[in-house]
Design goal:
Organism: Leeuwenhoekiella aequorea
CATH architecture: Alpha-Beta Barrel
CATH class: Alpha Beta
Distance between the termini: 23 Å
Largest sheet: 8 strands, parallel, barrel
Strand content: 15-25%
CATH topology: TIM Barrel
EC number: 4.1.1.23
Radius of gyration: 18 Å
Number of strands: 10
CATH superfamily: Aldolase class I
Bound molecules: orotidine-5'-monophosphate
Number of helices: 12
Pfam families: OMPdecase
Structural class: alpha/beta
Family: Belongs to the OMP decarboxylase family. Type 2 subfamily.
Helix content: 40-55%
InterPro entries: Aldolase_TIM, OMPdecase_type-2, OMPdeCOase_dom, RibuloseP-bd_barrel
Shape: globular
Length: 272
């Protein structure tokens, strides 16, 4: 899908909610474990319950890779389900890839062409030639880590390289790359006060903001500092939505959490 369609979804649903499909067999309701593919059955039920409040889904590939080939099959079925039934919902493979050029181009092919995701998350540590193979894909988006939500973000990302912090350098440099209009950036909701500075460097880009819910970030703060005139945000919650209940009512409970988040977002989107 293209950016225009994403803007339209945001307007129509009055939401920038991205639901993270971090599906863990130890956390899903027991009754699903008897089915042939519990991960897919869980995801399908979550998608059906939450899609009207949601503009993006983000399966984190670690939760699928952890189960080997069966996990990859569950991931494939999940993205196929989304592309078939909800083609207007943006899809993110949260894989945090990045390597020397020829390897990155294989990662890009895997997530964009083989699996058919709209976007993939990447780690920029290896620099321009490790990101460009992702950016070469027309109609696809590369969501690069900028300032992450975890405490370790302060180990490197906020350290100064010359006058500027590393994360600012990453943002500034990336805007000079070819096809930089295909870039989005990850900024943790737990670092909302940094968003105003980040917006000065990338005023028009989409920011994927994980860390509300289980990690303690606030929707209000993210909008206050991070929204641009078209929102320009995708705010992710994974555990807070998908594990709202672990019994028979899990899908209804997820819908209710997703609705709560959408209702928190709506007034800010209406005011843009
Ligand atoms: O790239 C990400 O999505 C990401 C970046 C980041 O800085 N922090 C972060 O939590 N994430 C991911 O966002 C999701 C957050 O999950 P919850 O804390 O359960 O909402 C996980 O899949 C994380 O891997």
């Amino acid at each position: 899908m293209n950016i225009q369609q994403l803007f339209e979804q945001i307007k129509k649903k009055q939401s920038v909610l991205c639901v993270g499909l971090d599906t863990d067999l130890d956390k899903i309701p027991n009754h699903l474990l008897e089915s042939e593919d519990p991960i897919f059955e869980f995801n399908k039920a979550i998608i059906e319950a939450t899609h009207s409040y949601t503009v993006a889904y983000k399966p984190n590939t670690a939760f699928y890779e952890a189960y080997g080939i069966k996990g990859w099959q569950s991931l494939q079925k999940t993205i196929d389900y989304l592309n078939t039934h909800y083609p207007n919902i943006f899809t993110i493979a949260d894989a945090k890839r990045g390597d020397i050029g020829n390897t990155s181009s294989r990662y890009a092919k895997a997530f964009f062409e083989d699996l058919g995701f709209d976007s993939v998350t990447t780690a920029p540590y290896m620099g321009k030639d490790s990101m460009e193979p992702f950016l070469a894909f027309d109609g696809k988006f590369t969501i690069m880590l900028a300032l992450t939500s975890n405490p370790g973000a302060f180990d490197f990302q906020t350290q100064k390289i010359g006058k500027a912090e590393l994360y600012k350098k990453v943002l500034e440099t990336s805007t000079t790359w070819e096809n930089s209009n295909r870039l989005m950036y990850v900024v943790g909701a737990t670092k909302a006060e940094y968003l105003a500075d980040i917006r000065k460097i990338v005023p028009d880009s989409f920011l994927l903001v994980p860390g509300v819910g289980a990690q303690g970030g606030s929707v209000e703060e993210v909008f206050k500092y991070g929204a641009n005139s078209k929102a320009g945000l995708l705010i992710n919650s994974s555990r807070g939505v998908i594990y709202a209940s672990n019994s028979l009512d899990f899908a209804e409970a997820a819908a209710s959490e997703a609705k709560k988040l959408q209702e928190q977002m709506a007034p800010y989107i209406a005011a843009l």
